[in-house]
Amino acid sequence: MTRPSILVLISYRVFPALMGGQKCIASFYQGLNQHCNVKLAVSNDNDLKATTGLDVEDFLYNHWNGFANIRYLFRLLKIIKTNQCQQVIIEHSYFGWLGVLLRLFRKTPFIIRVHNVEAYRFRDLNRKWWRFYYFYEKWVCRRANKLWFTSPNDLKWMQEQWNIPAEKCMTLPYGIDISEPTSFIEKQTCRTILLEKYQLNYLSR
Description:
The chain is of the alpha/beta class. It is 39% helix and 18% strand. Helix 1 links the parallel strand 1 (5-10) and strand 2. The protein starts with a strand and ends in an 8-residue tail after the last helix.
């Protein structure tokens, strides 16, 4: 059976994967790459030496200069054609507009992986333009072929507030990459270290 091919767009630094969100993305595509041919186009602030086992090109502008990526539209279209990509996956909504254009020219459906409601995150960070992003995020999420959520709460919210059809949505929570559960001894050792480090010994009484 021929393995399906997928193009992935990532708008910020993921490699090396040091923090939780980065690890979520990196480990997801390392797992998906075992079943599909995954081609990643990432922002140019990534470190390709940390992309072990993945096919990655780092030519995109990051999300702060995202609309400048219009200059790479034909390069992305060529990648889709050359690799015969049947699907585009976009991390977060930042590059969702590129998904709209790629579908327009190549008829390639696109998925947005929703890690949170970005507009409200920007609001909480006191970004003055968060309302503009709210309408953009709503617009692009409603035009995606599918939305994959890491949180069922965000899925429910978008269905209720933005009228996203249920058939377009699914939850793919952040998984784990350990082969077996943590042992009781390891848990107790970690608990002791944390209690001592943060002077929380009263909790052990």
